[in-house]
Amino acid sequence: MDILPILSTLRRHKLTAWLLILEIALTCAIVCNAVFLIGQRLQRMDMPSGVAEHELLQIQVADVTTPANPYARMAEDIATLRQVPGVISVASSNQVPFGNSSSNGNIRLDPAQPQRTLSATTYFGENLSNTLGTRLIAGRDLQPDDFVDVEAAMKALGTGDAKGLPHVTLITQTLARRLWPGQNPLGRLIYLTPTVGLRVVGVLDSLARPNAYDINTAQYTMVVPLRMGASKDQSYLIRTRPQDRAHVLAAALAALKKVDSARVVTTKRSFDDVRRKFFQDDRAMAGMLVWVIVALLIVTALGIVGLASFWVAQRRRTIGVRRALGATRANILHYFQTENFLLATLGIALGMVLAYAINLFLMTHYELPRLPAIYFPVGAIALWLIGQLAVLGPALRAAAVPPVVATRSV
Amino acid sequence: MLAYYFELALRSLRRNKALTALMVLAIALGIGASMTTLTVLHVLSGDPLPGRSNTLYAPQLDPRDMTGYRPRAEPLDQVTWIDGMNLLQAKRADRQALMTGGSVAIQPAQSALDPFYQTARYTTADFFPMFGVPFRYGHAWGASEDAASAAVVVISSKLNDKLFGGRDSTGRIMRLENHALRIIGVLGDWRPNPHFYDLNVKNYGADEGVYLPLSTSQDLHLAHLGGADCWGNGGNDATHTAPCVWLQFWVQLDTPAKAAAYRQFLVHYSQEQKTLGRFQRPPNVRLRNLMQWLDYERVVPGDVQLQSWLALGFLLVCLVNTVGLMLAKFLRRSAELGVRRALGASRRALFSQLLVEAGVVGLAGGLGGLLLAYLGLWLVRRQPADYAPLAHLDGAMLLMTLLLAVGASLLAGVLPAWRACRVTPGLQLKSN
Fold first, then answer.
1. CA–CA separation, A57 vs A90, rounded Å?
2. A131 in the same domain as A80
3. Same domain, A69 and A131
4. Pick from A338, A349, A340, A334: nearest CA to A301
5. DSSP assignment of A203-250, as one string?
6. CB–CB of B68 and A114 under 8 A?
């Protein structure tokens, strides 16, 4: 196919051609970035929690009257829940992965260092590993005699007495690698307060934080052996078989009500619900981006159809002359297809530059990473395809122009 | 003349229905998407207390120890109990209120209702006049009730509807965590968004049902709900002596001079506390007014801003599209325009005729865009986000939609109209 005649025709319609190129470039740039954003959101929604997600239930109850001994109440509740048929394991916890509400501490590796090394979340509660289903990849799990009552620990912290404080902790492998790259974390000390260090006794494969807003720090997690009393901030976590969840939840709530009828259930949900709620904004945003891409491509396609139709109508005479001089239908068809391909290619080239600029803007204002090169061809292919599809109709109409047009006046 | 152009425009648009529909659709889509996201942005970044916000300030202090100290770092955004009480009692502002969030169990008198939890606000008395809180029944409490830790409570109209069927409940007793409190006021319709005075609870759509004196909440040991930042040997959160910030302090300063004086007072206070040994860092204070505070706290979700940019990009594509289509349409009529020129119409007349045509397309697109914006906002409201129920189109945004649509399409019409006006009458006539 000869490109030169196409170029010389386009030169006579510079303005229109440039408008088309501009539209394709803008669409290409926005589509590249939108696809990238969707990828980011999907990656976030896929974040591992490190727990047995389809087997977990979370219950929070609040007592209208504070029980005389919250520790005894907690023990009673846990014993009651263990009796519920279908329950495999029960734990108490101050928080759950992706639960939003979190307790965090500043980690120092040397008690004298002025700035914190990083901020990590701290899980407290008994029997967490078994119930959550976390996987220990080195060292040992927390033992019953590691545990300290949280109230005693707070008192000890105030008086500076190291005895009442916990001495060991579990950490995730991500945190271990971040704190001591390439070294064995077991036996090392982490300081949450300047006075007492927690010795790392075990490393977990994975356990996400409740406030996992940033994928890079989502696994900065510690588990500290603190025993909590019953309160409305505590959660009971129940592990059961996936198919038993609904009736175990109902039975567990009834059992808890039996312990004290004047209590209010504030949370009752499966871990699937926790994940769905935490990532709901990401899902909504990804959905919206898909619609934007679809709408953009449709608008651009319609624009191409409109302009191509106009060109075909304007050049009916020329097409007739070409046909009379021996050009085949296929020649005419290819002419318009090539013309569109050229315009699309120019638009895509400009669009790549624009996409990169938009990405730079997003990086500075919305803390997004750099657009990987893999996304550029995505936009290019989408627009080449859309362009060819859109021009097909008008091009076929052009090919159908009979040679006799050349001999008619107007 | 304009009426005649208008008629010409309609005639010309009718002649080429597909192209017209395409242009109107493109503008409608672009306007609809932009107005949906801009309305959400407008609602979320709006002023929660118009007319008052420029006299309300959130003082910030830095009571932390030297651990982690960096010069020029931002101070904390809440206050400790001790500092809050000191600033409150200093009474250096026109009005001041110390407050924090809570969550309380309410035990309805009717047996039909189970006990339930309700978010609460524990505050000192100036909260109500300072924020201009409207009352449907009764009144707020005063400084004497604060001092006496009076067992009084103000409830929201929503809670009043739930518990008392909307009747005047002032004077009645409400049981709350096994304590009896007397209801002295029922609020009118008051839901400032964003929930500016305490952004730890929820930025939008927070729903506080119960307001009671801060002193009473402390005497009754009611639970604190919200953020707490601790340092040193942190100890328990939300206690009077712990090195933790967990309260919000707001002041009203009627003139800029008073604000400047208050800022000085905060510096002096910090210095004094440093001499006393309570503060360790050099004085580090901020005094932001309400809108600056919302800006500093980045209340508007990043996603919403991103969506607005996206929609504006989409509008731009739609406009470029319209420019292209309009150019095609106008150039196609070169012959007609040539005849009009030859018959004596000036370029300016042709230009305004074509612009009227562009304006008609814009108006039609704007109306379509308005419908799409209503549809879009309805979709936004069905989303699960906190701010979703707030997404409504108000009068200003409605007008803005139409102006944007017409303005954008006039802008899109300028280039094609100018290009089409440059036809040489002779050439066009000859070729015919």
1. 10
2. yes
3. yes
4. A340
5. EES----TT--STTTTT-EEEE-EE----TT-EEEEEE-GGGHHHHHH
6. yes
Q: Within a 10 A sphere around the Cβ of A319, how many other Cβ atoms?
A: 25
pLDDT higher than 60, residue B196: yes
Instruction: Tell me the whole-structure pTM to 2 decimals.
Output: 0.82
Q: Which of A221, A243, A278 is the last residue of a domain?
A: A278
How many Å apart are CA A34 and CA B175, to the nearest integer?
A: 53
> CA of A127, closest CA in chain B: separation in Å?
24
Residues B119-136: pLDDT tens digits? 999 999 999 999 999 999
Task: Burial-class residue B2 by CB neighbours within 10 Å (0-12, 13-18, 19+).
Answer: exposed
Beta strands in A40-167 (DSSP E): 56-63, 87-93, 104-107, 118-124, 136-139, 148-149
Same domain assignment for residues A157 and A301: no
Chain B residues close to A65, C-beta within 8 Å: 177-178
Query: Nearest CA to CA, how far is B312 from chain A (Å)?
Result: 11
- Total count of domains within chain A: 2
How far is A193 from chain B, CA to nearest CA, in Å? 6
Residue owning tokens 């879009």:
B376
Same domain, A241 and A268: yes
Asked if A113 is an interface residue toward chain B (Cβ–Cβ < 8 A), one would say no
CB A70 within 8 Å of CB A180: no
Q: Which residue of A has its CA nearest to B70?
A: A115
- pLDDT of amino acid A409: 58
Nearest by CB to B233, which of A193, A280, A307?
A193
Residues A187, A260: one domain? yes
Task: Kindly list the domain boundaries of chain B, sorted by start residue.
Answer: 2-45+301-431, 53-296
As a whole number, the mean pLDDT across chain B is: 87
The answer for B 27-66 residues in CB contact with A (under 8 A) is 29-30, 33, 66
A312 and A379, same structural domain?
yes
Which of A376, A114, A168 has its CA nearest to residue B231? A114
Interface mutation vs chain B, best among A12, A64, A117, most B CBs within 10 Å: A64
Please report the residues numbered 140 through 179 in chain B whose beta carbons come closer than 8 angstroms to any beta carbon of chain A: 177-178
Q: Could you tell me if A323 and A174 lie in one domain? A: no
Tokens in use for A228?
A: 């909590």
Highest mean pLDDT among A296-310, B133-147, B388-402: B133-147
pLDDT at B382: 87
**Listed residues A229, A256, A278: the one ending a domain:** A278
3-state SS, residue B286: strand
Chain A contacts of B301, Cβ < 8 Å?
281
State the average pLDDT for chain A.
89
Q: Write down the residue that tokens 């904004």 correspond to.
A: A281
Tell me the residue type at B232: G
pLDDT exceeds 90 at position B58? yes
Domain housing A152: 53-278
Find where tokens 């790392």 sit.
A200
The angle, 0 to 180 degrees and rounded to 10, between the axes of the packed helices A4-12 and A329-366 is: 70
- pLDDT band at residue B234 under the 50/70/90 scheme: low
| pLDDT single digits (tens) B143-181 | 999 999 999 999 999 999 999 988 999 999 998 888 999
Determine the Cα angle at B413 with ends B410 and B419, to 5°: 145
Q: Among A23, A102, A108, A151, which would you mutate to test the B interface (most chain B Cβ atoms within 10 Å of its Cβ)? A: A23
Beta carbons of A93 and A128 less than 8 angstroms apart: yes
Interface of A with B in 12-71 (CB under 8 A): 15-16, 19-20, 22-23, 26-27, 30, 34, 37, 62, 64-65
Phi, psi of A331 (to 5 degrees): -55, -45
Locate the chain A residue with the closest alpha carbon to B26: A299
A391 and A245 fall within a common domain: no
Across the interface, whether the CB atoms of A157 and B235 are under 8 A apart is answered yes
